[in-house]
């Protein structure tokens, strides 16, 4: 079984994208670590926030793919913060330091919760233009550990790691998911006691998202149909909280689809970001957007319509002998197409057209 940390893609990422360390607080021990790839003139990049067990490296496949398509991509590892407001203040200072305007946030699990809270806290002076919430939640009470949140700082590292590992998938999984779990365990081992304790504190201290404060933020909810740390009830609560959100479903992927189902996740991310092409909040270099697509986007903006919706239907294709999930592309003015490969929307993006040409098959 090939491990991710010795794979050519990961080695290429580590050798080509430098790790930056930035201090924005008065406390010099609070160091933000990040990978920043893609055109630096873009002021509204997509920023990735990891789960409790993750570091900035866990999104390396998104950094490589999206920056290769012309997007500016930043993957973060946050310093030790014990309070949500403290985190939001530090994150705001980081955006100021990087001279970023409003940003797009992709958050996995805890990262998704922090992304929502940051959008909520900054709603009077918005810093978040859109959200992609992967296997995330909106209320910490779902973990039933709010009463222990204030005692994590006392626990030794091995006990904290045991708590985190208890949420990892158990039983047989396919090789790619097994590799993803191994990689996340390796990343978990790299975190020290205070990093783990502070993340678990943020994950479990009594808090919930106030959706009315972020009602103007475009949201995509990404989740999986197989086993993950989130209960069915938690997923349903997210759907209720964001009734107008786009839903991006993966048939499989477990807790870490961005590692073991990266091609599908990257495609969903690109579809989410395309709605902002041709605007000041585009995360992509204008040179990478076709004239045809820009014209479509301008028309949609002038008509105040949405150019792309995710269908609730799920299609199953076959790639490398494994079941994968695809979405149906629909226009706000057209009926759903049975041939997403040859639609004008898809053909306007060579990367999307190539991916679907190789991988799309209608389900039986």
Which structural traits does this protein have?
single chain, 364 residues, alpha/beta, Rossmann fold, disordered C terminus, Maspardin
Brief characterization of the structure:
The protein is α/β, with parallel strands linked by helices.
Overview of this protein structure:
The protein is an alpha/beta fold and 364 residues long. The chain has one domain (4-289): 3-Layer(aba) Sandwich (Rossmann fold). It is 37% helix and 16% strand. The protein contains 13 helices and twelve strands. The strands form three sheets. An eight-stranded mixed β-sheet has the order 1-2-4-3-5-6-7-8, with helices on both faces. A two-stranded antiparallel ribbon has the order 9-12. A two-stranded antiparallel sheet has the order 10-11. Helix 4 (110-121) links the parallel strand 5 (103-108) and strand 6 (128-134). Helix 5 crosses helix 7 (193-204). The radius of gyration is 20 Å and the shape is globular.
């Amino acid at each position: 079984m090939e491990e991710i940390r010795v794979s050519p893609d990961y080695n290429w990422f580590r050798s080509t994208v430098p790790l930056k360390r930035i201090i924005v607080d008065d406390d010099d021990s609070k160091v933000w670590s990040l990978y920043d790839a893609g055109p630096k003139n873009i002021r509204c990049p997509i920023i990735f926030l990891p789960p409790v067990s993750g570091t900035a490296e866990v999104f390396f496949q998104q950094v490589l793919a999206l920056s290769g398509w012309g997007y500016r991509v930043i993957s973060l590892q946050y310093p030790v913060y014990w309070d949500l407001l403290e985190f939001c203040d530090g994150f705001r200072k980081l955006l100021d330091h990087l001279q970023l305007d409003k940003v797009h946030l992709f958050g996995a699990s805890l990262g998704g919760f922090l992304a929502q809270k940051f959008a909520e806290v900054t709603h009077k002076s918005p810093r978040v233009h859109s959200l992609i919430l992967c296997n995330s939640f909106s209320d910490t009470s779902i973990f039933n550990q709010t009463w222990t949140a204030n005692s994590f700082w006392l626990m030794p590292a091995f006990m904290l790691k045991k708590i985190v590992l208890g949420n990892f998938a158990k039983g047989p999984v396919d090789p790619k998911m097994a590799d993803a779990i191994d990689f996340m365990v390796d990343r978990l081992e790299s975190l020290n006691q205070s990093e783990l304790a502070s993340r678990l504190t943020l994950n479990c201290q009594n808090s919930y998202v106030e959706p009315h404060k972020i009602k103007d933020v475009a949201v995509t909810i990404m989740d999986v149909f197989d086993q993950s740390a989130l209960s069915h009830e938690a997923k349903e609560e997210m759907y209720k909280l964001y009734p107008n959100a786009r839903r991006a479903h993966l048939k499989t992927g477990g807790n870490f689809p961005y590692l073991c189902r990266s091609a599908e996740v990257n495609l969903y991310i690109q579809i989410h970001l395309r709605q902002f092409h041709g605007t000041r909040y585009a995360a992509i270099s204008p040179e990478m957007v076709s004239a045809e697509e820009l014209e479509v986007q301008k028309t949609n903006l002038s008509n105040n319509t949405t150019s792309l919706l995710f269908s609730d239907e799920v299609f199953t294709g076959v790639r490398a002998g494994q079941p994968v999930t695809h979405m149906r592309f629909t226009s706000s003015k057209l009926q759903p197409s049975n041939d997403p490969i040859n639609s004008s929307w898809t053909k306007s993006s060579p990367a999307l057209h190539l991916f679907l040409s190789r991988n799309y098959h209608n389900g039986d």
